[in-house]
């Protein structure tokens, strides 16, 4: 490469030297270092484009002439460097422009790009990235077209969080008058099961230009890279983001972006520890507040700062981390009134480790309510029910680890008026009075129910489960505690989740469960990890006897003593059973044959309403006896499995 370049360099230098020697005032040479970029461009245009140089060195060899020649050569070198950068920068810009025209995404209409940008900007994955790598700033640095679309898409700028709070004025201006979403939360807040596997380095809208060879050119020539609106602004153009508004976006990221370049959590801790710095610039725009999500903010700070009504706020989340389970605020010492109790449009309220009085007008017409880790010593459970009654459109309800004063005994107990929550879709109740709450809110059969009964099963478990009639598959197990899960008929939607805080085996738990619950449409029953310590033969028989509708039974890692109870005619349990799956329960071949014969019509005549066993699934539990297995396959379908995956739906 040097063999090609070196012969041309002397001619170029000589030509430029002659131009400068002829045209420039010798007295000016000493100040060439002070020439700014505009003057430098002027000289490039003047001499680089000249075609008829005249005048040469007069040959004087005095000290003065040599000094002048030395100064001229230095200027030639500076101008040559600038000329090369300018020329190649324009060529690179032209190439990038043509390249971009061949990329399909560059040909999308601005309206389509705006929609795509909005989806990217609102994703949880975007919020987990460092500021300079997240939308909208990274989108603004791709090309002038993208920059214009991003700047003119207000919803991209309507979210203000801990990491971009230091440039909040820029976001406030570019979001126009759109409602604002404000968040001071750790990065874990943005994690979700759908995005856990997402690799931030492969995030599809984080662009890194592959033209590394041109990085120096474009860095020094941002202002010279063409005039076409569709030209690629090149590498290093992130500093141009914000020029249209008189602000430099990368420059405005300032100290915070440099201090926390790759650590959004550090930015969170900074804003959390100085919440007034975050909220003060936003208070004048409170008429635009749409959502406010805060974590681990001091209650006294909140009481001082959030004293005004919020007439447009729809979502308010105020939480303390789950890592502080011992911090359970008491109502009498920690309850505060925020927003002057005025938030008429509030629909989503989430309080965890913070207490607001249940008598507050904020508890009105909510569609989502989450209360967690609060000790009420002034408000009663009846006040909670009255608050729920004020929310007839409630869709999601979560009451977790709440403590209320005990309900005083009365010879004529007052039954509160039920809160009719016909729109309730999901209820999560982890508190001792779950049964009382369920009886008092009358949830619809379509509700998805999650209960934790604590360690007082008989006292606090509900008398009936409102969605029991929808459950088609039921799982009962003990690992490491008792649990019950239910799935809807004809699908894999989980609509029931019961958890019992019994670490020690208690067979009476399962017996009590069956006595108080009814599943009239149950088709499939799964028993998992039930040993002789957790379930005995009589309890197993009682469970099957109370569920006569099941057609599929699965035993996984269960006691060997349970399978013989399925054999008829000694037992008439599960008369409609058609499919049996035995997993990790090592039965002998003879026991399997006897079981199949008793259920397949080989040894008895079935009564009306009884069904034949027509499918047997054996997984990691049988003895090798191919002759017996071959004999069984002539009567029923036998499936041999070695997979460790245990399917609930057969």
UniProtKB/TrEMBL annotation:
InterPro entries for the chain: LRR_dom_sf
Stretch list, region Disordered: 191-263
Superkingdom in the source lineage: Eukaryota
Residue spans of biased composition, Acidic residues class: 193-253
Gene3D superfamilies found in the cross-reference section: 1.20.1280.50, Ribonuclease Inhibitor (3.80.10.10)
Name this polypeptide is given: Uncharacterized protein
Organism listed in the record: Botryobasidium botryosum (strain FD-172 SS1)
């Amino acid at each position: 490469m040097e063999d090609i370049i070196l012969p041309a360099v002397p001619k170029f230098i000589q030509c430029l030297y002659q131009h400068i020697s002829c045209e420039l005032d010798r007295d000016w040479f000493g100040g060439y270092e002070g020439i700014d970029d505009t003057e430098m461009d002027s000289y490039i245009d003047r001499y680089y484009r000249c075609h008829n140089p005249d005048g040469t060195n007069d040959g004087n060899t005095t000290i003065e002439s040599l000094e002048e020649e030395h100064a001229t050569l230095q200027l030639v070198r500076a101008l040559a460097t600038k000329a090369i950068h300018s020329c190649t920068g324009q060529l690179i810009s032209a190439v990038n422009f043509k390249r971009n025209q061949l990329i399909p995404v560059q040909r999308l209409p601005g309206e389509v790009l705006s929609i795509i940008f909005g989806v990217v900007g609102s994703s949880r994955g975007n919020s987990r990235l460092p500021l300079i790598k997240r939308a909208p700033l990274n989108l603004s640095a791709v090309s002038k077209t993208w920059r214009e679309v991003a700047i003119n898409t207000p919803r991209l700028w309507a979210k203000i969080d801990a990491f971009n709070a230091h440039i909040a004025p820029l976001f406030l201006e570019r979001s126009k008058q759109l409602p604002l979403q404000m968040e001071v939360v750790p990065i874990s807040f943005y994690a979700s099961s759908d995005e856990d596997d997402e690799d931030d380095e492969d995030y599809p809208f984080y662009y890194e230009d592959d033209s590394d060879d041109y990085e120096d050119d474009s860095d020094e020539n941002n202002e010279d890279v063409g005039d076409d609106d569709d030209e690629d602004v090149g590498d290093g153009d992130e500093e141009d983001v914000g020029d249209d508004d008189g602000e430099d976006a990368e420059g405005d990221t300032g100290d915070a972006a440099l201090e926390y370049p790759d650590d959004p959590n550090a930015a969170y801790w900074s804003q959390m520890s100085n919440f007034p710095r975050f909220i003060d610039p936003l208070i004048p725009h409170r008429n635009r507040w749409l959502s406010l999500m805060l974590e681990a903010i001091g209650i006294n700070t909140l009481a001082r700062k959030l004293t005004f009504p919020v007439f447009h706020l729809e979502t308010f989340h105020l939480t303390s981390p789950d890592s502080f389970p011992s911090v359970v605020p008491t109502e009498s010492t920690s309850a505060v009134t925020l927003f002057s109790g005025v938030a008429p449009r509030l629909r989503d309220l989430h309080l965890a480790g913070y207490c607001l009085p249940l008598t507050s007008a904020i508890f009105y017409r909510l569609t989502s309510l989450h209360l967690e880790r609060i000790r009420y010593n002034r408000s009663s459970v009846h006040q909670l029910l009255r608050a729920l009654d004020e929310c007839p459109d409630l869709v999601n309800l979560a009451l977790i680890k709440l403590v209320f004063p005990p309900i005083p005994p009365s010879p004529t107990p007052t039954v509160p008026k039920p809160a009719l929550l016909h729109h309730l879709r999901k209820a999560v109740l982890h508190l001792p009075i779950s049964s009382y709450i369920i009886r008092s809110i009358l949830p619809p059969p379509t509700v998805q129910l999650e209960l934790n009964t604590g360690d007082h099963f008989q006292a606090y478990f509900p008398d009936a489960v409102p969605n029991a009639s929808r459950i088609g598959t039921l799982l009962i197990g003990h690992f490491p505690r008792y649990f019950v899960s239910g799935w809807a008929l004809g699908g894999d939607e989980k609509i029931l989740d019961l958890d019992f805080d019994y670490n020690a085996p208690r067979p009476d738990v399962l017996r009590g469960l069956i006595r108080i619950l009814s599943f009239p449409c149950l088709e499939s029953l799964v028993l998992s990890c039930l040993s002789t310590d957790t379930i005995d033969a009589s309890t197993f028989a009682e469970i099957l006897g109370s569920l006569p509708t099941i057609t599929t039974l699965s035993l996984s890692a269960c006691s060997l003593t349970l399978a013989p109870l399925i054999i008829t005619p000694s037992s008439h349990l599960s008369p409609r059973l058609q499919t049996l799956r035995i997993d990790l329960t090592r039965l002998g071949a003879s026991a399997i044959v006897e079981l199949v014969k008793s259920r397949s019509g080989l040894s008895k005549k079935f009564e009306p309403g009884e069904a034949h066993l027509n499918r047997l699934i054996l997984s990691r539990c049988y003895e090798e006896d191919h002759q017996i297995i071959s004999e069984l396959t002539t009567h029923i379908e036998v499936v041999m499995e070695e997979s460790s995956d245990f399917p609930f739906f057969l």
